[in-house]
Amino acid sequence: MHSLSIVIPAFNEEQRLPDTLERITRWLAGKSWDEVEILVVDDGSKDKTAKFAASYGRGVHLLQNPGNRGKGYAVRHGMLEATGEWVLYTDADLSAPIEEFDRLCLAATNGNAQVAIGSRALDRSLVQVHQAAFREYSGRFFNLVMRMVTGLPFRDTQCGFKLFRREAAQAIFSRQKLDGFSFDVEDLYIAKKLGIAVVEVPVRWSNVEGTKVSLMSGLRSFQDLALIRRLHG
Fold this sequence. Notes:
By secondary structure, the protein is of the alpha/beta class. About 40% of the residues lie in helices and about 20% in strands. The strands form 2 sheets. Strands 3-2-1-4-7-5-8 form a 7-stranded mixed sheet, sandwiched between helices. Strands 6-9 form a two-stranded parallel sheet. Helix 5 packs parallel to helix 8, helix 6 crosses helix 7 (about 185-195) and helix 7 runs parallel beside helix 8. The chain starts with a strand and ends with a helix.
C-alpha cells in the first residue's frame, strides 16, 4: 500500500473532532505511506466543525455537503473524492480506534479482498464499552433481519470502520442511492452483486455517547432493507 485516504463524516463534531484528528495524525506519523489525505466531510453542521477542519492543516481537507443530507451522503461524498490507493472511512468519535486499521489492512491483503469491514460481533470480547442494552439488542435483531432479507452473511454491517481499495470504492459508492444510516447494507449488497470480495474483521470498539441515530432513523433502516433489494435487484 502506497497511498491512503481517510474519510470522516462529521455533523456537529466540534467537540470530538480536535481529539480525533490529533489521534489520527499521531498514528500516521509512525507510518511510511507515500501519500496520505484526511477528508473531513461536513454534513451541514451548525457548529464550528467546518471551520476547525478547514484550518487544521497537516493533510486534512474539508469537503462540504449542500446542507444536512445524512451520513450515507457524507460517506459517499468522501469516498468518491478520495484519491488514495486504499480508502478508510471511520466515525468521527473513533469508537473503533484508528490503530485497528492494521487488522483491516492485514485481513484484506492476506485474504486478497478489496473490502475489509470492522465487526463488533465476531469477537464480542473486543467490545470494551457496550451500548445501552436496548440499542445493542436492537442492532442484533436488525442484523438478523438484514441477513434474512438481503442474503448477506455479515454479522455486523453497521460498524463505522471500513477499508476499501479505491477501485472498489468507486464502483460501489457511485451506485449507492440511500443517504441515511442503511447505506452500509446497501454498499455491501452492491459489492456482492459486483463480485467484489469482502472480508469481515473483528475489531476493538467502545461505545461513545452522542449518537446521531434517532428512533425513527432506526425504524427506517428496517424498511430500507426491502428497498435495497428493489434498487439493486
